[in-house]
Amino acid sequence: MAAPVAAYLRLRLRALARLAREIGWLRLVLLLPLLALATMQALVVAAGHPVGRWAAPLVVASLLLTAHRQRADWQFLATTAPGFRRWLAVEYAGYGLPVALLLLALHAAGPAILLLLLAPLVAWAPPTREGRATQHRGRSLFRSEAFEWVSGMRAAKALLLWPLLLGGAAWPRANALGPVLTLVVWLLVVMACYGAPEPSTMLAVAARQPGQFIRRRLGLGLAYAALTVAPFLALLGSWPLALGLGLYWLGLVALTILAKYAFYPNAVHIKTIQALVLVVVLLLVGHPAYPPLLVVVVGGLIWQSHRRLRAVLGQQAGEPKQG
Questions:
Q1: Are residue 122 and residue 29 in the same domain, yes or no?
Q2: What is the spatial distance between Cα 254 and Cα 248, in angstroms, rounded to a whole number?
Q3: Prediction pTM value
């Protein structure tokens, strides 16, 4: 048992090191300390709240569950190691351990123990069944050109989730925190739509110039995002607050779309950068370094997305000549 687990963990460390090299050490050196600082600040605030301290282990376990169900090596693990779930349990426990230790340091022993119990249990959750989403395809409410929304909302069962979230936000006993939490959940649903890159052939057909293509993706994505989030914002009861929070929310959606094409077509890189950007932009609000950091993130994603699309389109244009 110990030897296979150790070998698996060494393999995972090598994969993480390779991912870090491909993403770029400079980006990680800039983002990871800020990510760690933002996470620590969020845990400090949560640990001081009687309900928030119990939300911390649930949030970490939910993030692990989402990543676990979308693993790309399910088939490989299932065919090569029947007992692989025990390996994953050790891996996930290791991911949750730093957060649990920090909760212990903040005198939140109960949530820390809960996290150490929940993190390994994630390993026994089933993978996402990709085929089920494509077996029964009804008519979509979204234009076919907005393919991210067509496939993403169908896979997330958003037609059922959206009214449930709206009902929870509008519940008479809910306070102002209810709509805010539903905004976060709906943001994660929308982000999931932009986590999977489309085939490069689709991009080559749709894109003439990188700038024109990105503007079109942003226009469609932000239009649908604004339409779906407007009812949640209306429940805030304050139009200035709704306007400010709505613009901030749509800005996060825009960064998600830019991150997709900045690291297209590598799905792992896309999801990693999207998660880093989301956590840093959400949790560092109010920090003195926030304005210049936001300028760097936005400018970097715009530049990198144009650069990446030019390279992909150039490869697509060069393929017929090489044949």
A1: yes
A2: 10
A3: 0.72
